[in-house]
Specification:
heterodimer; A: alpha+beta; 11-stranded mixed sheet; 7-stranded mixed sheet; 22 strands; B: alpha+beta; 3-stranded antiparallel sheet
Chain lengths: 895, 99
């Protein structure tokens, strides 16, 4: 009989009655009037007088209001009615005490906003599994040397591994490369992964469209096929559903698109399309050479029973056999390193994010403590109100409900504001995520984060709303409050001590965070002031990728670079121009160094820089000894190389390096003579430079004349005049004059950029961390201020009678203020002391997380302490002023 | 039950219901207006009756109540349980009628 549908129908009718209750009341009134009219007529027909009939009818019907009330009870749902009334009251009370409400809402907004924001980041970057099937089984593979150092695996070695090992369900090798994709509206340079047989089987990800490589396509000289990434397919092919089977133009090849991978499939991260390694096996010498360790990745899938440790043992055993078979190339490398893919991806950033996460959790905790304090303050001032209500017959449940509703209203407002703030914060974090924050494109505020927000809100509302509510409803407290007893406020000595301790804890935490942020700011400033070894001002640079079809030959490439440099020099406003394979700050390649009489070691490496004759002048490198390359060197390179001072110091510490000979190895991977040993003579020594930016140390470097090794791509660099510099348009036009194809890229910027801008990009991760930590520490500071304000106000409210007596007995205003300030600031002071101790205690750990805080600067610590105490003092001042103004008479009367 | 039974004969307004019950029970059962109207409201919310404003034969606007399907079913159930109750009571009161 009571089917769900019927219950629902009843509920609907009830709800509608509730909504239309005023109309219904009017209708009922009408009905009753009609009834009375008929009754009256009946009475009159029995012969009564008009007046008697009326009175009889009224008597008969009885109390009309009562009928109305009884009927209304059946329309309305008592709970809803009550709650609505409570809500109205809560709104009114919130409006009445704007200061309190605002403080609570903002405190909660800060706490919940910060937590939800960091939760979103943590959740998406660290907690969620990668989007691959059984991603926890995927591991990156490395070779491990005797000394524990790691290096990339060569292709032949990986093949040995995959034939041998039993702990894996498969292994694959990916060789990185670049291709130019030609589209009707322009060309685009893309990263391509040449994948070994079975790569997609190892990844176990099904394509979104089409299929992955068939066995015959994976063979050398197999049918040329290509698989696209989702992003590339969307961006360059407008998500064309009929893309499968179409040929695309990649360099000089025209492979057929056979599949599109789903969103999130990005291995390696830079790959936008994948081709079988068979397509380059014949051409790429690096793939046949066991001794070359080139731009590549090795990945494996652990079998169901294997762990990282067990697989690492069994693979190391395999590698030991390989090392024995190839002592020359592999002798030093007797182990295998296995790193879970996710660890590799997020490993370095993990601790920093967890540290931030815990900091934020503490901030939330502070917020809750503050709210508890604030509501306690309010509880004292409202004790009487509650007591009066109880005395007038409000039920305890009603009074409690009112407090809970009030709290809930504020909590919801705070949470809404917090989530709104978090939305912006998350968007900002995502948009400004530095390049080294992995998976940053996945960061989003989603239902999980909202769930966290809801849980936090309920928890905090419970914590700071319900407990005081219960206390207010306690009969003892009520009567006490009515009588104006101090005990009613519930402030025993122990409680006030706990409150003080919590305030102290807030200050310690805020201090730790602020010192962290301050140190980070200081080290950031220091990095900005680092002498890079070259003058980055008025330098502009452009990365160029000459079309392989036209400039595959080293001579043609050199010719191109020479003409470009000549043409750029002719642009008005250009002081000098040059070409280099890797312009700082940026990438680099290294070469091994061998010097006769010195034991060959894998540690003897230096950056391999190949540059034109204008490079030293353009960058303003400091020439220490000898000379730089001349135009003559560019025409016919001798065996002369220039080394950095660090190289000279390291290999010839007690002798003049000039004129000494050393062996270096050709390092351009695309050339046939890659890896060839070259005996060279030192003709010059230049100052060290920070090749990778201010945050990494200067590295050893060997400079080779561009003519000796014309790189297949590289950077043009231009020093413009400080006054009337050449415009980017003029520079681009000059490049276009020489080779229009260089600027015809679709998505890469076809424009010179300032080197200072690149340098600022290098520091972007630090700025990011700095803004994050800065924001959180300011939150903590604000909350600490609110906290101490709350506690001191509470203390003043509680001590009002006492202070009043003191005033009455003749205490000076100043003395009252001092008492309050000292009482209020004591926990803050203690908190600062503990915070400083804590900072030094965890300093080592923080230093690991935020790598470039070298040491704690006492100046920073003292400044932060001063700041905190200043804020504390300001926060205590308001309650102190209130205490000063206590009217002794009123205070005493209240007693 | 009485109201339901009354309405099963046709749509009626509140006054009509009260009159009807009073007449049929020969004034034994007095329906108090004070409980009639709240009861009608409750029944309406439970979906046992439906109401609508109509004109009386005397051209007066009145709220007419009508039995719904659910109300009809409910009447059946109540009637049978009432009959059972009456039977039970009468067999207790007049045991000599048995066997």
């Amino acid at each position: 009989m009571t089917s769900p549908a019927r219950i629902f129908a009843t509920l609907m009718r009830r709800a509608s009655a509730q909504v239309h209750r005023h109309k219904r009341a009017a209708e009922l009134e009408d009905e009753l009037a009609f009834h009375m009219e008929l009754l009256e007529r009946e009475m009159r027909s029995r012969g009564m007088s008009e007046r008697d009939a009326r009175e009889a009818a009224i008597r008969q019907i009885g109390n009309r209001t009562r009928i109305q009330e009884e009927a209304r009870d059946s329309w309305s749902i008592a709970l809803i009615d009550d709650t609505l009334r409570q809500l109205r009251m809560a709104f009114r009370s919130a409006r009445r005490s704007v200061g309190y409400s605002l403080t609570v809402v903002l405190t909660l907004a800060l706490g919940i906003g910060a937590t939800v924001t960091i939760f979103s980041v943590l959740d998406h970057v660290l907690m969620r599994p990668l989007s691959y099937t059984h991603a926890d089984q995927l591991v990156s593979l490395y070779q491990r040397g005797r000394g524990g150092n790691e290096r990339l695996v060569s292709y032949p070695t990986l093949l040995d591994w995959s034939h041998d090992s039993s702990s894996f369900d498969g292994m694959a090798y990916v060789r990185g490369g670049g291709v130019t994709l030609a589209l009707p509206d322009g060309k685009e340079a893309l990263g391509v992964g040449y994948v070994s047989q079975g790569f997609f089987k190892v990844m176990q990800t099904r394509p979104e469209l089409g299929r992955t490589f068939a066995p015959e396509e994976e063979l050398q000289f197999g049918a040329d096929a290509v698989v696209l990434s989702h992003d590339l397919w969307v961006r360059d092919f407008n998500s064309d559903p009929h893309i499968i089977g179409r040929a695309v133009s990649l360099d000089s090849a025209a492979p057929t698109v056979i599949g599109v991978m789903p969103p999130g499939f990005a291995y390696p991260e830079w790959a936008q399309l994948w081709r079988p390694i068979g397509q380059i096996l014949g051409r790429d010498t690096a793939l046949q050479n066991r001794d070359l360790h080139v731009d590549s990745r090795a990945i494996g899938r652990l079998s169901g029973t294997a762990t990282v440790a067990s697989a690492s043992r069994s693979l190391s055993a395999v590698q030991q056999r390989v090392a024995l078979s190839y002592p020359k190339q592999e002798g030093e490398w007797t182990g295998a390193g296995i790193v879970p893919l996710k660890t590799e991806l997020v490993g370095s950033i993990g601790p920093a994010l967890w540290a931030l996460g815990s900091a934020v959790a503490l901030i939330l905790l502070i917020a809750c403590v503050n709210l508890a304090n604030l509501s306690a303050v309010r509880g004292t001032s409202r004790g009487r109100e509650m007591a009066v209500r109880l005395a007038l017959g409000a039920s305890r449940a009603q009074v409690s409900l009112q407090l809970v509703v009030e709290t809930l209203l504020l909590a919801i407002a705070g949470a809404a504001l917090g989530v709104l703030g978090a939305r912006f914060a998350v968007a900002w974090l995502r948009a400004n995520a530095p390049f080294d924050l992995p998976r940053s494109n996945e960061i989003a505020l989603d239902s999980r984060a909202l769930l966290v927000a809801v849980l936090l809100t309920s928890a905090t509302a419970l914590l700071f709303g319900v407990v005081p509510a219960l206390r207010a409803a306690a009969p003892k407290g009520a009567i006490g409050a009515l009588l104006g007893r101090r005990s009613a406020a519930g402030g025993t000595r122990a409680q006030s001590r706990v409150r003080g301790a919590l305030t102290g804890a807030q200050f310690s935490l805020a201090l730790v965070l602020l010192v962290g942020a301050g140190s980070l700011l200081q080290s950031y400033r220091r990095l900005q002031a680092v002498d890079l070894g070259f003058d980055a001002n008025n330098l502009a640079t452009l990365k160029i990728f000459p079309p392989k079809t036209k400039y595959a030959d080293a001579g043609a490439a050199l010719q191109l670079y020479t003409s470009l440099v000549e043409r750029l020099r002719a642009v008005p406003g250009v002081e000098d121009a040059a070409f280099v394979n890797f312009m700082p700050p940026g990438g680099s390649v290294s070469t091994r160094l061998e010097i006769s009489g010195r034991k060959v070691s894998s540690d003897d490496v230096a950056l391999y820089v190949t540059a034109s004759e204008g490079y030293m002048r353009a960058l303003r490198l400091r020439l220490a000894r000898g000379r730089w390359f001349t135009k003559n060197d560019m025409r016919s390179p001798g065996d002369g190389v220039v080394i950095s001072e660090s190289v000279a110091k390291r290999y010839w510490p007690n002798a003049d390096a000039l004129g000494k000979s050393l062996t270096i190895f050709r390092s351009s991977q695309v050339r046939k003579d890659f890896g060839q040993a070259v005996l060279s003579t030192v003709i010059g020594i230049v100052g060290d430079i920070h090749q990778h930016g201010p945050d990494s140390d200067p590295e050893d470097a060997v400079y080779v004349p561009l003519s000796a090794e014309p790189w297949a791509w590289g950077s043009l660099v231009v020093r413009t005049r400080a006054t009337s510099p050449a415009s980017n348009v003029a520079l681009a036009a000059a490049v276009k004059d020489v080779e229009p194809a260089l600027l015809r890229s679709r998505h890469s910027a076809a424009d010179f950029t300032a080197v200072t801008k690149d340098l600022s990009y290098v520091l972007a991760p630090r700025r990011y961390m700095l803004s994050l930590l800065g924001a959180f520490s300011l939150c903590a500071l604000a909350l600490a201020a609110v906290g101490i304000y709350g506690v001191t106000s509470y203390a003043v409210a509680q001590r009002t009678p006492e202070l009043g007596i003191r005033r009455a007995l003749g205490a000076a205003e100043r003395e009252i203020v001092r008492t309050v300030l000292v009482r209020g600031l004591a926990p803050a002071l203690l908190g600062c002391v503990i915070g400083v101790a804590l900072t030094f205690l965890i300093g080592r750990y923080v230093r690991n997380v935020l790598s470039d805080i070298s040491s704690l600067d006492p100046v920073v610590v003292i400044a932060i302490c001063g700041l905190l105490l200043g804020v504390g003092l300001a926060a205590c001042y308001f309650p102190a002023r209130r205490a000063k103004r206590i009217d002794p008479m009123i205070a005493l009367r209240a007693e | 039950m009485l109201v339901l039974k009354t309405l099963s004969l046709g749509a009626l307004h509140g006054y009509g219901i009260a009159q009807h019950i009073r007449q049929l029970s020969k004034d034994v059962l007095q329906v108090e207006e004070g409980s009639l109207y709240p009861a009608l409201q409750r029944m309406e919310l439970k979906g046992l009756v439906s109401a609508e404003w109509k004109l009386t034969p005397t051209k007066r606007r009145a709220r007419y109540y009508k039995l719904t399907a659910a109300g009809r079913k409910r009447l059946g159930i109540e009637q049978s349980s009432f009959t059972r109750l009456v039977d039970a009571i009468s067999s207790v009161m007049q045991p000599e009628n048995q066997e």
